Structure formats: structure tokens, C-alpha cells
């Protein structure tokens, strides 16, 4: 029989649900912080390991790729082994990966351990949300999502600042070691407070599909990143990686269309709204994570700021997004995503445009305002477009759509970081032909104003690419669905649909 939701005597969440919420929030905080906390440490990491921009970008790219690859496994693993054991395992993987990252002796070792950390982080968020959904029940899902939404909003804001404080005052290794005490507390609470759940062995894992998807994505991103190291697409290593990667992804697509339980339900892309929304999600992920890769490098390499100050200078973007996220959702309901999302993408492009003109002396006030505008654009563009992807889907398709959109966002981010890193590396090489352009040699303390301005010009070129992605996203955003016209008496029906959708999310935990 189904395990009943933990009841609450009134409209508030029960103490039992709050305990589960603490466990999930602790895990979510770690996973989300680690998407941005490392950003301000990249110049330090590159200097310590004497490596290039393209190579060190894999510290971010590898983590994002691992998140994308492991997301399809979350649903199957919960059904097969139960939510509590899977959540505990994900915490162990994340803590273990964090310890190994902190002990890394080379860039290669750090990148490999970031993959391991990403596998744990990729399971923490979807499994944790599913546990919360089952514990609270659909009637309390709004309050549950508000509870989980706090770290989701604050993580990207606090990540660079916390990372900057740690790197400025301690070793970079502590940006990984800081996860250990939080993770141990979360692990203890998980074992003590998380409710048990049944197992459903009827669900099968598409092992063949996974064997195509994981290496296919990795090879494509690796091939793109090698463009900078090898000097172009003519290099054999680049061509082999890209061709093999594309062939494996094509094989995955063909396999998914035939599999009984595919990792990704590609039939969803027959829906116009879903396909257009996922294009926007991919492009938003690319500019979000790609620009978050460029910003701390600019502030530290060109402007000579400390990691702490670089993280603080990036905060306006997160603040802008947090301030408008709720109003943006209401405006989207009132006017439709076809109106709000293009506005968000346009604001995102305008905010990015300012960074295409950066120099070695550009006003920090001007740049902060530009980042704040970018944040407002993200607030208007991100959540509404995710909501638009669900328009017209059945209750059974909602969980599969959530899996697909999250994978697409992470893949977009990893490709964005790889491409922007290549553009930056090549731009710096063009500015300083025949010289060593590894980050270990780029220090404003030893460079003239002329050299600093040339470096700024290279960053400006990279930001033009980010601007282009933002501008490109406006086009599919204009094809998103308009306002949903609610006829008299339809509101109750829509509320019933929403309730059923939340119930479907909760049912990820098997009976």
C-alpha cells in the first residue's frame, strides 16, 4: 500500500516535514553553491597548476556535465533502490568528491574529482525534491517549494562571495573542504529523519542509451574545448572527438525513440511549446554559466581584484534575479510567456552589451548596473520559460519533461563555458602572439596599462559571444505561448490540473 503523506494539523508544515525539509535544504545548498563557488577560484587554480584557460574551464564544465548525465538516473534509482538510500548515497558521493577535490594534486585530478562530485550533486536535488513532495503531499507543495526555493535563489548570489572570501583568506582547497561539515550534518539528519519508501523493480534502466549519451556529450564538449588548445577545427583530435560525439548522440536519439523506458522521452519534442521552450532553456544556460565563467576572470586578471572582491562584484546579477523572480511569474501568468520572456532576454542582452566595451578602467558602478539588469533579465526569462515548457503536457509527461529540461539547461551551460573559454583563449593569443598566455603569466601586478587594455579587449570579444547568445534567444522566445485564456468556470479546472501535476511529481517516490 502507498505510504501516506505525513499529515499536518493545520495549514503549516508539520514538524516531521520540516525535519525532512532541513535535510533536503542542506543537500541542495551544497549542490547549488558548488555550481558558482568555484568560479572566483579559477584564476588561482590555473596559476597553481600552471595550465591554460581551456583546461581550467573543465573544473566548471565537468561538474555541469556530470549533473546533466546523472539526472536521468535519478528516477530509475529511486524506484529501484528507494529514495532514502539513494539520497544518502548521493551525499556520500558529494562529500567524497569534495574531499578528493580539496586534495587534488593536478588539474587533471581536480577535473576528474569534480565529475565525481557532480554525480552526487546531480542526484541530491531531484531525489531530495521528490522526498519532500511525498512527505508533504500535493496540498503543501507550494510551501515546500518555497522552502526549497530559498537556497535555489541565494546559492548563485552567495556562491561567488563565499568562494571569494575563502580563496582570499585561506587556500583554494577550502572551497571544497567547506562542504564536509555541512555534508556530515546532512548525512546524519538524512539517516535519522528521512522516511523509508518502497521499491519498484519493474522499472528498467536503459543501459544502452546511457552508454551512448554520457560519452557522446563528453566528447562533444571536449572537442569544442580542444579547439582553443589545438588552434582550430582542423586538428585531428578535435575532429575525431566531435565526430564520435555526434555519432554517439545520434545513436542515443535513435535508441530513445525505440526504447520502452528511455532515459529521455524524445517524443516530447513533438510538442511545439516544449521544443521552443527547450531552445530558450539551452541558450539561457549557455549565457548564464558561460558568463559566470568569464566575469571572475575579467575582474581578477584585468582589474587585479582579489577573489573576494570579484565575488562581491558579481552579486548584483543574483540580487536582480531574486528581486524580480516572483513578480515575473505573476506577469507571465497575466500577459503570457510570449510577452515576458522576450523582455527578459532583451534585458539580458542589454546588460551583457555593457561588458563588450570593458577596458582596464571601466567604472564598477556602470558594470554593477549592467549586471543588475542582466539579473532582472534572468528573473524574467528563466522560471517563466520552464513553466511554458509544461503547457499542453499530460500529467504523465510532467516528470519526464522536468528531467529533459534540467538536462538541457546543464548541457547548455557546459557547452557555453567550453565555447566562451575557447573564444577567450584565442582572443588573448591574438592580442599577444608568440607568447605564453597561460593564466600563470597573466598578472596585472606585472603588466603595463597597454597590456591590461589589450587583455580587456580580448574579454570584450568573449562577451560579444555572450551577447549574441542572449540576442539569439529573443527569437524563439517570441514563439512561446501567449496568455492562457481562462473562461468562466475554467479556473477550478486549471487548479485541479495543477494539483494533479504536483501529485505526479510526488509519485516519483514508489509505493
Condensed summary:
Helix content is 76%, strand content 0%. With 511 residues, the chain is mostly helical. It folds into three domains: 1-201 and 487-511, Growth Hormone, Chain: A, CATH 1.20.1250; 207-260; 268-480, Growth Hormone, Chain: A, CATH 1.20.1250.20.
Strand content: under 5%
Write down the overall mean pLDDT.
80
Shape: globular
Low-confidence stretches: 1-9, 486-511
Instruction: Please give the CATH class of the largest domain.
Output: Mainly Alpha
Provide a count of the helices: 18
Compute the CA-based radius of gyration: 22 Å
Q: What name goes with the CATH superfamily of the largest domain?
A: MFS general substrate transporter like domains
Helix coverage percent = over 70%
State the order of secondary-structure elements, H for helix, E for strand.
HHHHHHHHHHHHHHHHHH
Derived from helix and strand composition plus strand pairing, the structural class reads mainly alpha
Commentary on this structure:
With 511 residues, the chain is an all-alpha fold. The chain has helices spanning 15-36, 42-49, 53-56, 58-81, 83-102, 107-136, 141-169, 174-177, 179-193, 207-230, 236-258, 272-302, 307-335, 337-355, 364-389, 398-431, 449-477, 490-506. 76% of the residues lie in helices and 0% in strands. Mean pLDDT is 80; it is low at 1-9 and 486-511.
Amino acid at each position: 500500500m502507498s505510504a501516506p503523506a505525513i499529515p499536518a494539523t493545520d495549514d503549516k508544515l508539520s514538524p516531521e516535514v520540516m525535519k525532512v525539509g532541513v535535510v533536503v535544504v542542506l543537500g541542495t545548498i551544497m549542490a547549488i553553491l558548488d555550481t558558482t563557488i568555484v568560479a572566483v577560484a579559477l584564476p588561482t587554480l590555473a596559476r597553481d597548476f600552471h595550465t591554460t584557460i581551456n583546461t581550467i574551464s573543465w573544473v566548471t564544465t565537468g561538474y555541469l556535465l556530470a549533473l546533466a548525465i546523472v539526472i536521468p538516473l535519478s528516477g530509475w534509482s529511486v524506484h529501484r533502490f528507494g529514495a532514502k538510500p539513494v539520497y544518502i548515497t548521493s551525499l556520500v558521493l558529494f562529500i567524497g568528491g569534495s574531499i578528493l577535490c580539496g586534495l587534488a594534486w593536478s588539474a587533471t585530478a581536480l577535473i576528474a574529482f569534480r565529475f565525481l562530485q557532480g554525480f552526487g550533486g546531480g542526484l541530491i536535488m531531484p531525489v531530495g525534491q521528490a522526498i519532500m513532495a511525498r512527505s508533504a503531499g500535493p496540498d503543501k507543495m507550494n510551501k515546500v517549494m518555497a522552502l526549497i526555493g530559498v537556497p535555489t535563489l541565494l546559492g548563485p548570489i552567495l556562491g561567488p562571495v563565499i568562494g571569494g572570501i575563502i580563496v582570499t583568506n585561506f587556500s583554494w582547497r577550502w572551497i571544497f573542504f567547506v562542504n564536509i561539515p555541512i555534508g556530515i550534518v546532512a548525512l546524519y539528519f538524512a539517516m535519522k529523519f528521512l522516511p523509508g519508501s518502497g521499491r519498484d523493480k519493474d522499472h528498467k534502466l536503459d543501459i544502452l542509451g546511457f552508454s551512448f549519451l554520457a560519452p557522446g556529450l563528453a566528447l562533444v564538449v571536449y572537442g569544442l574545448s580542444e579547439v582553443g588548445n589545438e588552434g582550430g577545427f582542423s586538428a585531428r583530435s578535435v575532429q575525431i572527438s566531435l565526430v564520435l560525439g555526434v555519432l554517439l548522440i545520434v545513436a542515443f536519439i535513435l535508441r530513445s525513440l525505440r526504447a520502452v523506458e528511455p532515459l529521455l522521452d524524445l517524443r516530447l519534442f513533438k510538442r511545439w511549446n516544449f521544443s521552443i521552450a527547450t531552445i530558450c532553456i539551452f541558450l539561457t544556460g549557455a549565457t548564464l554559466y558561460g558568463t559566470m565563467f568569464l566575469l571572475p576572470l575579467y575582474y581578477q586578471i584585468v582589474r587585479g581584484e582579489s577573489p573576494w572582491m570579484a565575488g562581491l562584484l558579481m552579486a548584483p546579477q543574483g540580487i536582480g534575479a531574486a528581486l524580480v523572480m516572483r513578480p515575473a511569474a505573476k506577469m507571465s501568468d497575466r500577459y503570457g510567456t510570449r510577452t515576458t520572456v522576450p523582455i527578459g532576454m532583451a534585458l539580458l542582452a542589454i546588460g551583457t552589451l555593457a561588458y563588450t566595451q570593458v577596458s582596464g578602467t571601466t567604472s564598477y558602478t556602470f558594470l554593477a548596473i549592467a549586471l543588475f539588469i542582466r539579473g532582472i533579465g534572468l528573473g524574467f526569462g528563466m522560471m517563466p520559460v520552464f513553466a511554458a515548457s509544461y503547457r499542453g503536457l499530460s500529467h504523465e509527461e510532467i516528470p519526464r519533461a522536468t528531467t529533459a529540461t534540467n538536462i538541457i539547461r546543464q548541457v547548455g551551460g557546459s557547452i557555453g563555458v567550453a565555447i566562451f573559454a575557447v573564444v577567450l583563449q584565442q582572443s588573448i593569443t591574438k592580442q599577444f602572439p608568440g607568447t605564453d598566455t597561460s593564466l600563470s603569466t597573466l598578472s596585472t601586478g606585472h603588466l603595463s596599462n597597454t597590456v591590461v587594455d589589450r587583455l580587456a579587449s580580448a574579454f570584450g570579444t568573449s562577451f560579444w559571444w555572450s551577447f549574441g547568445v542572449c540576442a539569439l534567444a529573443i527569437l524563439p522566445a517570441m514563439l512561446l505561448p501567449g496568455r492562457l485564456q481562462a473562461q468562466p468556470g475554467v479556473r477550478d479546472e486549471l487548479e485541479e490540473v495543477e494539483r494533479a501535476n504536483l501529485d505526479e511529481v510526488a509519485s516519483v517516490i514508489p509505493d
